[in-house]
Specification:
This protein is an alpha/beta fold. It contains 13 helices and eight strands. It has a single domain, classed as TIM Barrel (Alpha-Beta Barrel). About 45% of the residues lie in helices and about 15% in strands. Strands 1-2-3-4-5-6-7-8 form an eight-stranded parallel β-barrel, surrounded by five helices. InterPro entries: Aldolase_TIM, DapA, DapA-like, Schiff_base-form_aldolases_AS, Schiff_base-form_aldolases_CS.
């Protein structure tokens, strides 16, 4: 259903802190023109943690309008409160999205049985497909493979975004779920190897900056052209690393600003602009890749 390179789209903002919908249109056009296979709207990279519900929903609605059916849109609808995640899912379903990405509840550290109940409730709130999102580095909780396998039996749960970077888990899940259940990489540094081992796609931060290359790598891997996929990825490894030297989306927004795709690198507190050395490092890599001029 959803295969290939999906960008975890940044939410551009003005220096005033308001969402910059004009730049959002620029970003959407950038991805349509550069082969991105789909958009994830208002996930981690979209600063979901600091957008109130009304704004969260509005950004997704505007993204749907801007895409105009040219790409599938997966909407972030996760929360650490099941009631809130269900509410968001029901509201966003009205916007015309194609599916949802729902993160493991953070901070309150539920038991695995709690995860089963949480995701059953969220997946049952809409008839649209839902992708689970496991990112222990942010949630401080790991969703066990056994939990994913059990949740895969829900008719609306169609995939997993795995951001653990542990490639063994791809095989562990794939071996025990229906062939239609999809597993996506959420870790750009290992995404190529993940795809070559049988992954169905990526939900990528790096695709904000190099959409054409990330989409190309995925297509090669999905077609079994593994050497071509690895060749496409090899030159991107420094970029993957640099985009995470400060908390996401600090570095992607700085890069997009230097690429003149957004008017401001503004982030909502508690995130702030990158350190000067981080700015210099990412700008040097963008020059090296031919993305900006020195």
């Amino acid at each position: 259903m959803f295969k290939g390179s999906f960008v975890a789209l940044a939410t551009p903002m003005l220096d005033s802190g308001e969402v910059d919908y004009e730049s959002l249109g620029t970003l959407v056009e950038f991805h349509i023109n550069n082969g991105t296979d789909g958009i994830v709207s208002v996930g981690t990279t979209g600063e979901s943690a600091t957008l109130p519900f009304s704004e969260h929903i509005k950004v997704i609605e505007r993204t749907v309008d801007l895409v105009d059916g040219k790409l599938p849109i997966i909407a972030g609808s996760g929360a650490n409160s099941t009631e809130e995640a269900v509410f968001l899912t029901k509201q966003i379903a009205k916007a015309g999205v194609d599916g949802f990405l729902s993160v493991v509840p953070y901070y309150n550290k539920p038991q695995q049985k709690g995860l089963l109940a949480h995701f059953d409730a969220v997946a049952s709130a809409s008839d649209l497909p839902l992708i689970l999102y496991n990112v222990p580095a942010r949630t401080v909780l790991d969703m066990h493979d056994e939990t994913v396998i059990e949740l895969s039996e829900h008719s609306n749960i169609i995939g997993l975004k795995d951001a653990t970077g542990d490639l063994n888990r791809l095989q562990s899940v794939k071996a025990n779920v229906d062939s239609s259940f999809m597993v996506y990489s959420g870790d750009d540094a290992t995404a190529c190897e993940f795809m070559c081992m049988g992954g169905d796609g990526i939900i990528s931060v790096s695709a904000n900056i190099v959409p054409k290359q990330m989409a190309s790598m995925c297509r090669y891997a999905l077609n079994g052209e593994y050497e071509n996929a690895k060749a496409e990825d090899s030159g991107l490894q420094p970029l993957h690393e640099l985009l995470f030297i400060e908390p996401n989306p600090v570095m992607p927004k700085w890069a997009l600003y230097k690429m003149e795709l957004i008017k401001s690198p503004f982030l909502r507190l508690p995130l702030v602009l990158p350190e000067l050395n981080s700015q210099t490092d990412i700008e040097r890599e963008l020059v090296k890749l031919g993305i900006i001029r020195n």
